[in-house]
UniProtKB/TrEMBL annotation:
It comes from Heliomicrobium gestii. InterPro entries: Bact_response_regulator (IPR050595), CheY-like_superfamily (IPR011006), Sig_transdc_resp-reg_receiver (IPR001789). The modification 4-aspartylphosphate is found at D53. GO terms for biological process: phosphorelay signal transduction system. SMART domains: REC. May play the central regulatory role in sporulation. It may be an element of the effector pathway responsible for the activation of sporulation genes in response to nutritional stress. Spo0A may act in concert with spo0H (a sigma factor) to control the expression of some genes that are critical to the sporulation process. Pfam families: Response_reg. This is Stage 0 sporulation protein A homolog. SUPFAM superfamilies: CheY-like. Keywords: Phosphoprotein, Two-component regulatory system. It comes from the Bacteria. Residues 3-118 form the Response regulatory domain.
């Protein structure tokens, strides 16, 4: 199972992701509430996988993704977005995101995306 960093400014979203991922045996090694904190915790924790919300205060998820990919080009990051953010999802994928999941979360879609990224 994977060591995962969850980055989302919504406490509810972080809680839902944590519940879905830990139920399948993944370990949540850290949580971040903005992109700046995500970059810092990524460097400290070196997770196997990151879930990254796109819209966050201080530093958005796409900027944080770019910084993480710059630090580790092999980083595995799944973007989390609200419906209607197709242009931002495309930008994230072009910037190195390995997959994406849209809110509200469907547990099976989250786990499928995580499994696909971990196997790649």
């Amino acid at each position: 199972m994977a060591r995962i960093l969850i980055c989302d400014d919504s406490n509810l979203s972080r809680g839902n992701l944590k519940k879905i991922l830990t139920a399948k045996g993944h370990e949540i090694i850290g949580e971040a509430v903005n992109g700046e904190e995500a970059c810092k915790k990524y460097g400290e924790c070196k997770p196997d996988l990151v879930t990254m919300d796109i819209t966050m205060p201080k530093m958005d998820g796409i900027t944080a993704l770019k910084k993480i990919i710059q630090e580790n080009p092999r980083a595995k990051v799944i973007m989390i977005s609200a419906l209607g953010q197709a242009p931002k999802i495309l930008e994230a994928v072009n910037s190195g995101a390995k997959n994406y999941v849209t809110k509200p979360f469907d547990a099976n879609k989250v786990l499928t995306a995580v499994d696909e990224v971990l196997k790649a």
